[in-house]
Amino acid sequence: QVQLVESGGGLVQAGGSLRLSCAASGTSSRDADMGWYRQTPGKQRELVARIRSGGGLNYADAVKGRFTISRDNAKNTVSLQMNNLKPEDTAVYYCNARLWGVDAWGQGTQVTVSS
Fold it and tell me: Cα angle at 66 between 76 and 105, to 5 degrees?
């Protein structure tokens, strides 16, 4: 089982930047596919970005060119650099680890982008 703790959310003006971090602990977190999801009230949680254990990347169309996901297997961390933030990026962001078909989630961190 992987345990995840996010940090780095906050309030930022449109056009600004934030960096989210997720610290993973537990069994073989470096073997997990890691990702960031976000959720707003009344909507389903959606994938923002994913980095697979082998390094492959996926991004939601809405964030391509603005967000960058990375991982440091030596430190068991995954980060999301968010640039040129828009009000529609406002959401609770969740770190995800998927290992052997089982999902683990962090507690979430709020990102608010003011216009």
Answer: 35
